[in-house]
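Section: Multi-chain targets

For targets with more than one molecule, the full set of components is provided together so that the structure can be written out for the assembly as a whole rather than chain by chain. Components appear in the order listed by the source. The example entry contains two components.
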Amino acid sequence: MTRQIRMHVPDGFLDPWVAGLFWLGSGVAIGIAVRRARDELGDERTPLLGVVAAGIFAAQMLNWPIPGGTSAHFVGGAFAGMLLGPSLGVLAMTAVVTIQALVFGDGGIIALGGNLFAMAVVDVLVGYALFRALRGVHETGAVFVAGWGAITAAALVVGVGVGLSSAFSYELSVTVPIMVVGHALLGLVEGAITAAVYGYVANARPDLVLGRVDDSLSPEVRL
Amino acid sequence: MTSLVSDSWERRALLGLFVLVVLAPAFGWASGVVGYAEPLDNAAAETGASDAADPINPGLLPDYSVPGLSPSLGTFVSAIVGTTLTLAVAVGGGRLLER
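Its structure, encoded as tokens over all components, is:
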């Protein structure tokens, strides 16, 4: 049996006001990213943006089976943030998540704002912030923690969003622990893959790792 | 392997993308075998929300499948289409934003 299943929040899960707030948050963050990206793109960076986005799309299709009835797949927002920097990272993930929703029905249309906020904003910016904060201690460890922590933070956001919605009977106390604990465990795989791929790229072409070359890029301050 | 791709990181990256695309059907099959479920599915089941999912847009290639094709082939085609489209949209969007 082959089964490729939906990975993102579908329509019908979020109350309209929750979906609206997510659209607002992701719209503001993506707008800022677009404005700042104008100064960053060009030369090798535009093709790099494309390759990272395409690689994350392809990697998200690989569901790592874990015996016992679950499976983990790479999300990649933190990786995008560290490799591309926060602005281009947000744009790369925006392309991935939007195409998944529009072409493959993976994630809803009304819920797209929520999926963008979790994966293209929180996952990218939290991952980048953790990486910047910890890389002075140990670079590979910082990458691992960034991949793990960012996906857990993104899961918290989704857990709160659905937990505030009527479809989930406003059961925040159920949705948040399931999302956070589940993704904190699956996030160990995310962190390991992030560290492995980051390590490869940083070794082969350190000049392509934009997240560590420009100290002026600090999304958590600007946002 | 490095001799194959010389000094062009773009070529090496495209090769990497192709490897990921080829792997997609195998992973899709394996996740079906273990009974794939994500925490969001579990949270929905726990709170009775599972039936609330109400897709507005099924997509041209719903659930990464191609109507009429076997699941593995559908996953493969979806991986090629999605990866190529993402590359094109991101590079095209990036070019538009330059300067």
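Confidence is low (pLDDT under 50) at residues 1-6 of chain B.
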